[in-house]
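ok trying again, last paste got cut off:
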Amino acid sequence: MNNTETAPTSGVTYWDYIQLDQLLSLQSPRTAAHDEPMFIMVHQAFEIWFRLAIYELRGAITALESGDTQRGIALLKRVGVILRAAHAGFDPLMTMTQNGYAEFRDALRPASGFQSSQFRVMEILLGIRQVPSADDTAKERFHWEVVAEQAGETFVNFMARYQQELQGIYDQARNNNLRTLMLRLTEQGTGKTGVEAYRHLSANRTQMPELAALADAGRELQAAMLEFRLSHHKVTVFTIGDAAGTSDAHTPVHSSCAAYLLNVIKDHSTIFPELEAGI
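nice, full thing came through this time. structure:
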């Protein structure tokens, strides 16, 4: 061996540990538009943050189920921090003009951020509930299933790819999602049910500090989700306008992408309705 060469050392390296080469090879723009690589990398970063948030949210649920409320609270706070870190990813997108986005938007059709299955998993684990179908009250559905019936490939492709998987996650989490667990623990601690349990907790916070801290952590997490949704709406208005349709179709109910996002914010920003009604 040449004396100037350095022999490789054993053990892990930074680039192998985080699989850096693979990570940096995952950006494949479809156009020559300058802004497209940023658009791809920001959304990839979102999905990494979502993956971490799901991991920690599952950990929080497991801790609460096992009776380790303090650990559950700590992990819920971590999830909120993670979502706010992800939320900062909208800042680079806000530097993109409508003309800049228009240079590559058509090449993305019919893809859409709506198709983020991980965001749907977070909704399910937090406690989103299915609602009765408008045409068959015996059947319950997710809020996005109605949209899929009214729109084009964006939604149909998502349903075909993820709907069965998400239904399975929902069925497993039906009795141990965060909303259900928080309410159950509060009912057990207060001897009250439903909204009355949170009202009792609100009036007696000092006597039940652990349950009060759990409720606070839940509200902080709810606020972080709302901030993420609001920023998503804002960047949509800035980059495609408030009247532009979804990536493949306008729908009778939501005439634009921005209008759809506002309706979601209005209808689904409250994750813990019993808690909100009880404070």
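cool. The CA atoms of residues 98 and 240 lie 6 Å apart. The mean pLDDT is 89.
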